[in-house]
Each structure stands twice: as C-alpha cells, then as structure tokens.
Amino acid sequence: MKQLVRPPRLAPGARVAVVAPSGPVPEERLQAGLDILRGWDLEPVAAPHVLARDRELPYLAGTDAERAADLQRAWCDPSVTAVLCARGGYGAQRMVDLLDWEAMRAAGPKVFAGFSDVTVLHQAFATRLGLVTLYGPGAAGVDFLKHARAQEHLRATLFEPETVRTLTAPSPGGTALVPGRARGVTLGGCLSLLASDLATPHAHPGARGALLLIEDVGESPYRLDRCLTQLLRSGWLDGVAGIVLGSWEGCGPYEAVRAVWADRLGGLGVPVVEEFGFGHGAGALTMPLGMRAVLDASTGTLTLDEPALG
Question: What gap in Å lies between CA 227 and CA 232, rounded to an integer?
C-alpha cells in the first residue's frame, strides 16, 4: 500500500460544510456542533438536507439522491475547505454510487471527516480520489458534543496536525494482544461496514501492507466473529501488517469480545493492540486513514511518518 495524498490543514476563518450522508440529525445536536466549530474560528455551513428525514425510510437523512447531492455540492464548492459528517447511522452505501467521482476529483483535495457508517465513504475517497481522510467523531455526535478530549483531538488534527503525529491510546488502554512493531499504511473503520462493503465498486481490494484500524458498536461477539471470519475467508486480511482495535460499545462483556480477537486475529503473526480509544467510545481519537505509520503494540502508540494534513 502507498500513502495517499494529504489535504491542506485548516486555518482560522475556513469555511466547512456539515453533511449527513447517512442518518438524520436532531436540530439541537446540529446547532450545538456548529457552535463548537464556530468556537474554533471556523465558518460552518449546514448542507440543505442535514435535518431532513426520508418519508418512507425515516432512518435516512432525506433521499439517496438528496444526500449524495449535498455531499457532492459541498465537495465541489471552491469556498469549502473541509466536509465534516454530522453523524453515522445508516445510508452511505445507498448513496455512494450516485456521486460523480470525476467532478469530485477535479475539485481538488480537501479534508473529509466522519466515522461509523461513513466507513463506506472513507473507502471510496481512498480508492477513487486517493486522499487521506480522518476517521473521527461526527460534528453533531453525542460523544463529540459531550467530551472535550474528542473535540480537542479533532481540532488539533485539523489545525495543528504536527502536534498529534503520535497517537497514544488513553489510559487504561493500549494493551498489546500480540506484542511487536509494524510499519504500514493506515486503513479501516467500522468492522461491520468493512465486511458488508466487500466486493463493491468503491471498496479497497484488501489490507495487504496495511495497519488495520477497526471498531464497532452494538454487535455481539458472534457477529464480530462473523465479520472477521468473512474478511479472513475472502482473503481481504492477507498480508495485513498490524491491527489496531478501537472501541466496542454495546458489544457485550469485553472478556467475550477479547476472546474473539484472540481466536480470529491472534494467529495472524502480526502486532495487535486493543482498547486504543477511537470509534464509538467516549472521547474518541481522530485517526487518519491513508497515512504511512509505525505501530508499536507494546507501548500502545501509532506514529505517523508525517502530519496527517499538509
């Protein structure tokens, strides 16, 4: 795997678009998130359908066409320097094929950030645009709004990425399931989305040479096992360099979850670190995808070769 192109960092006064490519967003959460961004001296602009809700499928923030149009319009707007997802949920898979990737490539590199269901878009931005993206909290997400650590880490990544070149698991956490060091390019996101995205037009073909970052929410241990087994059987994990495990909120007793990691990942012969503090957990870190880095499972650190943003 090769490192992808780094977008420019943000500067005070930058105009950023907030979009909802998946689930709908409560207005009070959106306004609270916009206020935080304004406090960072940014100029946030909410996309037209962030507060929309599809009539027939109320778990979607408007129709597939509306959500795709919001993202593409924001990305292709030359005055917008970053596109931040308001939340995850479900729906990115339904709209990703409606995007005009040629037009988006012509718009040039800019920051894209989000997590959870947005994993589908992270994969597409990597394979279609060749861009580094940020797997971090949603701008209107509950965890982001309530936790200063999540806010500060995203802010530092956007404005001062050299200060967060070394990502350190919060304490307690960062335990080596399999000790060792590995070098590779960061790849990943939400485990169940990676599994469901296999063999689709915009998915990454595999994790060879990658430092795989995975997390999930609300999936019982046997479902996590099923997702990992699918990735293993398909050959998608062949040649993976190392694995970083994030948060597993609502996935059952952690002892049971950890048993799945030991069984499915322990025999791969690569470093594996757990409880790294990104994903759906409180105070989640922002993890750059597409960056060359070194994983030290024994110290619970992931060190990027250079800042995530230029």
Answer: 9
pTM of the shown model: 0.97
Q: How many residues does the chain have?
A: 310
Respond yes or no: is residue 66 known to be catalytic.
Answer: no
Q: Is 20 helix (H, G, I), strand (E, B) or coil?
A: coil
Active-site residue, from 116, 153, 202, 274: 116
Q: What's the pLDDT at 171? A: 85
Nearest to 187 by CA among 139, 119, 138, 272: 119
Q: Verify whether residue 219 is a known catalytic residue.
A: no
d(Cα 87, Cα 293) in Å, to the nearest integer? 27
Distances (CA, A) of 259 to 177, 179, 212, 255, 256: 10, 16, 19, 6, 5
Q: Is 290 exposed, middle or buried (0-12, 13-18, 19+ CB in 10 A)?
A: buried
Query: Active site includes 215?
Result: yes
To the nearest 10°, report the CA torsion of 294, 297, 302, 304: 0
CA angle 280, 208, 237 (to 5 degrees): 60
CB of 120 closer than 8 Å to CB of 96: yes
User: Cα torsion for 23, 198, 132, 219, to the nearest 10°?
Assistant: 50
Q: Quick check: bond before 48 cis, omega within 30?
A: no
Of the candidates 215, 219, 274, 275, the residue annotated as catalytic is 215
Query: pLDDT tens digit string along 200-257?
Result: 999 999 999 999 999 999 999 999 999 999 999 999 999 999 999 999 999 999 999 9
Q: Is residue 196 classed exposed, middle or buried when 0-12, 13-18 and 19+ CB atoms within 10 A define those classes?
A: middle
* For the chain, the helix, strand and coil percentages under 3-state DSSP, each to the nearest 5: 35, 25, 40
* Residue 303 in tokens: 């060190």
Cα angle 226-137-58, degrees, rounded to a multiple of 5: 70
